[in-house]
Amino acid sequence: MSLSTKLPQTQIHPSSQAPRITLEEFLVLMETHHPFAAVLGIQILEIGFGTARLALPPNPNFQRLGGIVAGPMLMGLADLAMYAAVVGATGNAQAVTSSLTMNFLRKCPPGVILAEARVLKTGRLCAGDVTLTAQGSDVVVAHSVSMWSLPRLTP
């Protein structure tokens, strides 16, 4: 038996299924199990099956020299957006980041930053990407690619 036979893998078609967690359920999950996420004040706007849309509000404390949004803030936004998309696709709230690559494409101006996450593959490892834009602009300021490990859920 090959490894691919043992582990179920799914190609994600975002609009084909309902999310495995509602927005309301995800907000409760964040409050009860991930209170550290509130530090950035990120707003979870939408969760779909393998998709998520989040917003990082403007905050002068998030800026670095030159008045641009600091990279760690963008990485935190991208990581949380992908977590929401993975849980939306799998229902597994125990998912953890196994790798994250962040590409900063241009200076990120202060203001609301939007994150659009999509899961590209699910299985014991999930893969996906996140695109970050400044609100009101279609110009991509950063792009993240990450892998997520899904621990087996015990009954």
Work out the helicity level: 10-25%
Largest sheet: 7 strands, antiparallel
Strand content: 25-35%
**Shape, per Cα inertia axes:** globular
Q: Name the helix and strand elements from N-terminus to C-terminus, one letter apiece.
A: HEHEEHEEEE
CATH class category: Alpha Beta
Helical/strand content category? alpha+beta
Radius of gyration: 16 Å
Question: Can you say what the CATH homologous superfamily is?
Answer: Hotdog Thioesterase
Terminal CA distance: 26 Å
Helix segment tally = 3
| Total individual domains | 1
Report mean pLDDT, rounded to a whole number.
90
Low-pLDDT sequence parts? 1-10
Number of strands: 7
CATH topology: Thiol Ester Dehydrase, Chain A
Give me the CATH architecture, please.
Roll
Question: How is the topology of this model organized?
Answer:
Blueprint lengths: L2 H4 L3 E2 L11 H11 L9 E6 L2 E6 L14 H20 L5 E9 L8 E10 L2 E10 L5 E10 L6
Antiparallel strand pairs: 1-5, 2-3, 3-5, 4-7, 5-6, 6-7
Describe this structure in words.
The chain has 155 residues and is α+β, with helices and mostly antiparallel strands. It has one domain: Hotdog Thioesterase (Thiol Ester Dehydrase, Chain A). The chain has 3 helices and 7 strands. Strand 5 and strand 6 form a beta hairpin. The radius of gyration is 16 Å and the shape is globular. The two termini are 26 Å apart. 30% of the residues are buried.
